[in-house]
Amino acid sequence: MRTGVSARLPAARAVAGVATRGVNLDAALSEACAAADPGDAPTIRSLAYGAVRGYFRHEALLGAVCDRPARRLDPLVRALLSVACYELEDRRSPDYAIVDAAVETVRAAALGRSAGFVNAVLRRYLRERAAIDARIARDPAARHATPRWLAARLRADWPDRWESILAALDAQAPMWLRVDARRTTAARYLESLHASGLGGRLEPRVPFAVEADPPCDVARLPGFADGVASVQDLGAQCVVFPLDLRPGLRVLDACAAPGGKTALIAERQPALARLVALDVNAGRLERIQENLRRGGLTAQVLCGDASEPSGWWDGEPFDRILLDAPCSALGVIRRHPDIRLRKSPVDLEKLPLLQARLLRALWPLLAPGGRLVYATCTLVKAENHGVTADFLGSIADGDRVDPASWPGWPALGVGDARAGVQIFPGEAGADGFYYAALSKR
Description:
Elements: H1 5-21, H2 25-34, H3 41-53, H4 55-65, H5 75-90, H6 95-108, H7 114-127, H8 129-137, H9 140-143, H10 148-157, H11 162-169, E1 175-179, H12 186-195, E2 200-202, E3 209-212, E4 229-231, H13 234-237, H14 240-243, E5 250-254, H15 260-268, E6 274-279, H16 285-295, E7 300-303, E8 318-324, H17 339-342, H18 345-362, E9 366-376, H19 385-394, E10 398-400, E11 414-415, E12 421-423, E13 433-440
Parallel strand pairs: 5-6, 5-8, 6-7, 8-9
Antiparallel strand pairs: 1-3, 1-4, 2-3, 9-13, 10-13, 11-12, 12-13
């Protein structure tokens, strides 16, 4: 296969897989790269991520130059156009070379008469680029590559913040590391980064967090193989504050895979009486074990459905329960831009029902005086404040734990009188997370 085509075509196939089959981008890339030259893999990955990240901005662009809606195009043609649009945005190659490569790729894919169509569309865009780009810039949803339904939902939930949320979700995510406080401090680890020729910064409000800047392969991180440092977003690391871990507690991490929060709990409080990591997906348990092994950490790893405790619970109550609930994951779009293509309004309607069911199932496992922390990585009020407020209103033995009382809480996010705190994407460099702590009388 000729140079250029060998990377662009697999990248477009990965994008089309996300858009039409709903697979996540990493899975689509694994499939696409398996049949490609290994040397092309970094370029394939870069093109696919760029095309997916800008997919809905490209949809607005194509709507201005196509005689038919972009969603009615052949899926592979549509994906190839997003790859080309991303390259035109990136501007690392001359415009004419990008158009020629796109046309060549269409021909290599044997897509009939689509080569002429792609050529015409891209050249018309280049002729009218200034006017089209100006029109897109005036539309927050198009400018930040967000589907209309999602922009409308975020505007309804956060009328004073929705545009800044869209902008944050359209940005590149930083690389946050979690330092194992048993073995070093964040300040000392930052020194070791600098000694290895890497940059970084501290976030003093989260004392075990270090940002690696720029992001790099984990193999370059000092101590990564031994668990001295692990990759974990700043917002995810904040889970330890509402948990208020203490020696001798019995802790359950429900929905635990891939195990980052389990490892964090074990690191921050080595003197727990018991730590159980539960996940319904047996295939993901090895990821939990891998994270624990790398850090020299211990936990009991169980396969089980958190909504059906009778299948795995031994009857011993827990003092702390972390429910990191399945959610729409809108707070981590900047890391996983394919979420914008794979989620729908229907998903957002179904998820609160699942989340409420999990809360109801796990509450009886909590000891009197214990605390359940409900966490998501989304921004939708119905999945966050709505779920926790409704649950508290339905039980007689539960209370909200005021975020102001969470030991060490770094004063991130916006509090809610009904339950918890919403951290917004980009705030202090964190992803979007929600936390609520509920105590049992």
